[in-house]
Every structure is written in structure tokens, then in C-alpha cells.
Recover the amino acids of this structure.
């Protein structure tokens, strides 16, 4: 791959459509102060946690209810102007960038918890509710919402990107946990998908078509998700390993034996070092697994004993246990601060992050080759993984003043994702395609399947106004 | 509802399109003896386990590989003639009927297990593999495929109807367990959806769009599903209750407490009586729950103790336990033979079966009112339910010579499903829409959502040749 090809991944295709003044006037007339054209507001809504850049949207509408979203989409549709839904802005792949211009619809004020049905283990929320807010709201019921992508993302955004994170190995992803949605479609009409029944064979699975569609098929205005009883007992452990391979082989065996582990996270020695420096910890600077067990007291004990046995077969040692919430929080600090610790280790850096997922039997091969390549490149990086699912992230730390570092990092990313695809994996386990993985999606799914996605998109959004330019070109 | 309105549910809309002789000639030229126009073969492929009737398809193609399916669809597409995929014919809602004419593509000879990836807990099969065959094939790996809809259905058919059954409360449905598909689309091209990675955020979830699409978007030619480690310990129990309500309240509490029960099946006292007569058993003729617990020996013991305690609070008694496979088989006889026992109890009868699913907190209300109505009608019925999911089935036993019985049964069905929808449930938990639930789907999902399904259908199948006339009218 030459430098130019590599660079083609770096710059999103900017093809800004005109936003007529008449639309802005109409939005201001309808929304008053809830429609802003202030540059600072537009800029805040025109970027996310990715390293992509594009001109900001022409206006930001702050929606307070479904009708607001519907009206904003109807006005945009009238002028064939793109609309981009905005939750908290924590996307990692450029989902929020106005690469074709248009307006941003900020749903963060739609943050009401609408119905807690504790007896059914479901909760219905507006899309701007964040996962921490949701868990706070249901705390008194003895239930919790397990999906934890790291960021305190909005439930709407998590639905739109099919998010998951640390607990997915046991509780599934947004794919498995969203039961029903309300969606504003491309013509501004409002539909409902799914019901609160836990299973259904009633027609096309529009819920799961919308989950992961990254705002390209509609704006999510209401989400019903599953809740789970808080485990009677929770125990967490940290364990160091002589090599990444040993940690990964341990994980593979845990999964293959069917241990219902709730979390199993890999942190490589690089990242442990960064975390020690950042959080003043004294963790052994070796690859480690962070694990959590949920169940009855005896169940948790059984799982823990079995896992200790497996780990010790692979040279895992120095198990440190935590069963009170405070001790667990301390142990998980390493994982939760990994990103910030890495960024702080190279002041002023930008991060190119990757996200692939492979069948677990391929995990060691995929990871070890990618570690070797990253080490050879000389580019500092961190490596963390939800390894129980075969999902992991590298974050390459770049000096923005050195464009060749970006090219080198994109090459690492390219080689890593290509390797994951060869190993029957996916180009994104949980971050989404956004602007970053469009080429990889074609490699992964094939031209025919991407054409099918495009056909669906064209049929449901004939003027291509719903977050255009993401997932695939239309 | 008057008798005529009720009757409109009974007769599928027959609108047979012409099948040109040139197509039959072309199919015979391409497939030789694997294309049959013998009436007996066509009739066998023109019905299913539903009570609907329609003229048989014009020809049956026995596909032996994906290319056969692709070629048959291409020829059908050329003449704009419907194609109806056929697995083992166990559909309950008329999915296999050639209501618009056309040809049947029988995939039962595509019954190879293509790849067992035991270390990844996945298996890839051709669509004609049945669930029992699949479990036989993976037995030596210590893994199993949990989805059990009762019938020894084909994996392709189970995918197409989003099937589930007794184990879904713990292991999910086909929605959660299909990882990847190969599909022949309406123009005869072949696409792949998904990968063997356990999670992915890569583009639209075409896998789950196809799962449950009832053959209306493509013919499934390959399926990759998840497997699970065989539990170290399995224990089954049967428990009688003084009332259906007591059994249901017990179930609700089991679920709300998060007991990871693997199966919890309700059989009402009517059905127990039929089963006793049919299988020469001496079960107490009271409503009963059949339960199964999977886990470690101590885990299973813990679950069982907790469940016994809950059941006893609701008057549940006469727990009978089974932990050897032979004892479990004997206990499960009651459940597995329920359908045949019911049919035998009224010789010559036909069965109208229903299938709804509600949030579990609504289950008692929904069931009890429906039992009352069925009792009042005087029509014999059986009642079984995967009650852990809020899913249950009534089967009304009709004398085919008495049309008014059918009208009365359809009225019961109508009232029951309407009640389930009012209680935030779905019109079909696992059987699919087929011909039977098309009106209910509109009530459940709303005109807008059904229009979205229709728009997708039209975009992906512009000549409406893929199993037309099912799910919705196009």
C-alpha cells in the first residue's frame, strides 16, 4: 500500500450540499432559541472523538420531544438537506461529521426515563438518556443495564452504533438488548418497531435493522432495553501473565468451557505502564486480565476457582481479588483510565483507534501478529480488549505535526483489520463503520451485501438526507 | 365480529399467477429428475402443518447446492414466477402455500454440516440440516444447539421464521443465535451476511433482517449458528399447581429473580388429561410446570432449591425430579406428546393453533382471560407455553365438518391475540406471520412500520417473486 492509498482513509469525502437560507429561517421560526447557528455550537456538533475533520453543520436543532425531531426532519426533507442526530458526541468513527453539510439534531435534552417496568426487566427511555443516568434511575429496583462501552454514551447513540463493551461477553450487545424503538424516518413520520415482549416472529426485524444503522435510516427517539437483576454476588480479579499469548489462551479456555464470566478484559504491558504512571498504581508491568464474576456467592466462587486453575496452567499469577464495590472500582481503574493514561503518555498526541473482532480461536494469531507490527513501527500504542468476545482495540498515539506518523498508523490499522477479515472476523466489533471503515465493509461483506444495504437505504431515504456519507457511499 | 369477518382469516387470498410452460421446460432442462411436476410431489410441497389450503406449486425443484437455488431463482425471476423455499414442511402458519402460484424449491437435500468450529462454539450448515441432525453431528464435541421448537425443523426454516421454543428463556431464539447466512436474493445472486465473529457493528444487520423474513427476501442456503457447552449438570422437575395462575405467578417470580432456568413450560390440566390418556401416564390432572436447570452440580442444586421455595409459596407441590437422561426423557414426554395427545383426544379433528407472547408481568392476565373464553366456548383445546418468555400456545380442536367451530375458534384466536397486543405483546412469539397473522401485524406494528417492511420488500424483490403473499400484502 503506498502512502497515497493510506491517506485516502484519512480525509473524509467532503461534498457539502447547500443549506438554503429558507430552511434556516424555517427552523428558526419553528424552534426559536432551540435552533442555533452560532459557530461554537455548530463546531461542537460537527466533531466527535474521531480524528476526522469536516466543516460544521449549518445549524443545530435542540429537540425536546419526538415531534421536534419529526418537524426538523420534515423541514430538512423539504429542502433535501442532510440531518445528523447527535447524542453526547462520543462516536469514535466520524459518525457526527457533516461531510455532506446539513443540520445537526441534538437529542441530548430528550433525556427522560419514560417507563421502568421492573417486573418485566425492561425500561423505556428517550434517546438522550446516558447509560449512567439509566443505571442511576433503575438502581432502586435491584436491576441494572449492563452495556458499558466506556464512555457515558447516550442510549440513542449506543443503539445507532450497535455498541457493547466490557459486559457483552455475558449480557450481549445493543443488538441483543434493544427490544423496541421509536424512530423518525426520512420523511419525518414516526414509527414504532418491536414491543416489550421478549421475543417475536412478527415480520421483519426493523428493530435490529435500525440498531447499528448509524443514523442513516432514521433518528431514534425512544428506546426500550432489557434490564438484568443485580447479581447477588460480584467478584473481580486482576491477574498478570508472562505474555499476551498466555492471557489470550487463558481467555479462550474460559469461554470454551462455558464459564459465564461477566467481564474479561486484556490490557497489554505497554498500557499497564501508562496506567501506572497516570494513576499512580504499582501494577506489574505485564499483560493482565481484568475479570468479573456475577452470580450467587457459591456460583461466583466456583467460577473464580475454575478460572484461577486455567490461568495458572498458562503461567498467570499474582491474582488480586476484590469483592466490595470500592475494591472493584480500584481494580477497574486500570481499565477505565487506559485511554486517558495513553493520551497523557504522549502530550499533544491524537489517537487513531481500531476495533476488530474475530472468532475466539483466531484471537491469539490476530493479536500477536498485530503487536509485532506495532512494535516494529516504533509508534507508541495501547492495546485493550474485550477478549472474551474476540474484540480488541489498538490505539496508535500520533504527533499531529508529523503526517507520516498518521500514514504509518493507518497502515498498521489497515494491516490489522485485513488480518482480522482473513481470520473470519469483522472490521468493527462495536465502534461502527462511520467514515473510517467503509472500504473494509466492502471487503468484509462483499459488494453484493453492501449493495443490498444501499438498496435499503435508497428505498427508505430516497433523497439521501439521513446522515449521508456514512457506512457506504450512496 | 360477525361470522363473515371471522371467515376472512380462514381462506388465504389465492391469486395464482400463471407459470409459463417455458419455465417448466427450462427447469426440467436444467434440473432433470430434480425438477418434479408429479401431482403427489407438488401436493406434498403445497401444504404445511397449518390448516390452510391452496392449489399446489406448479413444480418442485430439489436443490443440492447453492448454485441450484441460484439457477432456479434466476429462471423464476426471468418469468416473474414466485419461488417458495421448502425445508421439512413443519410451518404452522401457511408459509409454504403457493397462494400466488409458482414453484417450490426444496432444500432438504442440502443437508451437509459444513464446518464445526468447536473452539469457537459455532457450526455452519446447509439449510436442510434439521436441528436433531445438527445436535447429532456436534455431539462428540461436548457442545449442543439449544433451539428446540418441538418439530425436528430444518435450520433454514427455523432461521426464516425466527423460531425458538423451550430453551429460549435461557439461550435466546434464532434471532440471537444465527451469526451468519448465505442467501440467494431475488435476482438469483448470492450474498453473505455476518461473519463468525460473535459481535459486529459493521453496517446494516442483514443477518437479522433475513432471520424471520419467511422467505420473502431470499432463500437461505447456509447458516452459521452459535453452539453452547453441554452443561456439566442437568436436572429436570415437574411440579403441579392448584391453578394456572399459581403456575404463572411462580414463573414470573423465577424470571424476576434472575434464576437462569433453562426451560419452564406450562401445561394446563386439560392437556395433562389428554397426555395421560395418550401416553398412559398418571400425572396429577392439574396445571403443571416442567422445568430444566443447567449448570454446575452446585449451581443446579441452588437453582432447584430456590425454585422449589418459590413454587411452594404458590401452592406448587408433588415435585418430581429427574437427573438422568432417561428420567428426563420420561418427564418431558408429557410436553413433547402434548400436540399428538390433543389431536388423538378428538379423532379426525383439525387444530387451529395460536402463538402470542407478552411481557411476563401481563402473562397471568392474558392467559386467564383467554382460558375463561375458551372454556366458555365449549371447544376443546390444549394450552402449553414457554412461559418463561411470556410465550404460549392454545390449540383449538375442531371438527372439520362443522364450519361454525372454525369460526368460533378463529374468534377465540382473534380475541386472544388482540388481548396480547393490548398488553404490549406480539401477535406471534415464534411461529411467524405467514398467512394467519397479517391483519394482526398491522395492528401490532402500525401502518407506518408495515409500510417500511413493504418498501424494503419492494426494493429487494421488485417483481415480488420471493414467497409472495406472506407477512403482508404487497
Amino acid at each position: 500500500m503506498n502512502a497515497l492509498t493510506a491517506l485516502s482513509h484519512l480525509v473524509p469525502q467532503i461534498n457539502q450540499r447547500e443549506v438554503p437560507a429558507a430552511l434556516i429561517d424555517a427552523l428558526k421560526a419553528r424552534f426559536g432559541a432551540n435552533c442555533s447557528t452560532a459557530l461554537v455550537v455548530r463546531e461542537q456538533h460537527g466533531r466527535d472523538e474521531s480524528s476526522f475533520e469536516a466543516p460544521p453543520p449549518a445549524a443545530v436543532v435542540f429537540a425536546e420531544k419526538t415531534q421536534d425531531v419529526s418537524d426538523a426532519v420534515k423541514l430538512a426533507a423539504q429542502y433535501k438537506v442532510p440531518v445528523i442526530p447527535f447524542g453526547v458526541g462520543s462516536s469514535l468513527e466520524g459518525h457526527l461529521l457533516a461531510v455532506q453539510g446539513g443540520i445537526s439534531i441534538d437529542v441530548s435534552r430528550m433525556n427522560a426515563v419514560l417507563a421502568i417496568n421492573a417486573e418485566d426487566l425492561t425500561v423505556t427511555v428517550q434517546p438522550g438518556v446516558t447509560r449512567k443516568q439509566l443505571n442511576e434511575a433503575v438502581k432502586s429496583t435491584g436491576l441494572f443495564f449492563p452495556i458499558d462501552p466506556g464512555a457515558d454514551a447516550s442510549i440513542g447513540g449506543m443503539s445507532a452504533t450497535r455498541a457493547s463493551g466490557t459486559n457483552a461477553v455475558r449480557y450481549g450487545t445493543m443488538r441483543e438488548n434493544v427490544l423496541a424503538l421509536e424512530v423518525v424516518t426520512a420523511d419525518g413520520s414516526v414509527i414504532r418497531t418491536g414491543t416489550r415482549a421478549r421475543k417475536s416472529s412478527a415480520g421483519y426485524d426493523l428493530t435490529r435493522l435500525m440498531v447499528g444503522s448509524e443514523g442513516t435510516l432514521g433518528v431514534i427517539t425512544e428506546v426500550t432495553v432489557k434490564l438484568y437483576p443485580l447479581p447477588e454476588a460480584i467478584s473481580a480479579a486482576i491477574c498478570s501473565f508472562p505474555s499476551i499469548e498466555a492471557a489470550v489462551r487463558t481467555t479462550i479456555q474460559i469461554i470454551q468451557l462455558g464459564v459465564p464470566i461477566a467481564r474479561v478484559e486484556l490490557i497489554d504491558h505497554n498500557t499497564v505502564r501508562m496506567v501506572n504512571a497516570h494513576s499512580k498504581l504499582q501494577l506489574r508491568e505485564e499483560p493482565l486480565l481484568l475479570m468479573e464474576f456475577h452470580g450467587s456467592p457459591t456460583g461466583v466462587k466456583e467460577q473464580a476457582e475454575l478460572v484461577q486453575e486455567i490461568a495458572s496452567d498458562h503461567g498467570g499469577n499474582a491474582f488480586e481479588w476484590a469483592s466490595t464495590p470500592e475494591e472493584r472500582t480500584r481494580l477497574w481503574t486500570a481499565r477505565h483510565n487506559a485511554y486517558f493514561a495513553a493520551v497523557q503518555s504522549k502530550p499533544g498526541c491524537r489517537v487513531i483507534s481500531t476495533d476488530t473482532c474475530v472468532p475466539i480461536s483466531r484471537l491469539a494469531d490476530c493479536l500477536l501478529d498485530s503487536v509485532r507490527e506495532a512494535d516494529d513501527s516504533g509508534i507508541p500504542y495501547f492495546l485493550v480488549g474485550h477478549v472474551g468476545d474476540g474484540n480488541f482495540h489498538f490505539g496508535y498515539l500520533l504527533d499531529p505535526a508529523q503526517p507520516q506518523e498518521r500514514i504509518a498508523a493507518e497502515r498498521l490499522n489497515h494491516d490489522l483489520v485485513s488480518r482480522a477479515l482473513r481470520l473470519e472476523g469483522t472490521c468493527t466489533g462495536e465502534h461502527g463503520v462511520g467514515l473510517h471503515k467503509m472500504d473494509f465493509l466492502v471487503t468484509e461483506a462483499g459488494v453484493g451485501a453492501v449493495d443490498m444495504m444501499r438498496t435499503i437505504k435508497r428505498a427508505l431515504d430516497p433523497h439521501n438526507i439521513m446522515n449521508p456519507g456514512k457506512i457506504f457511499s450512496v
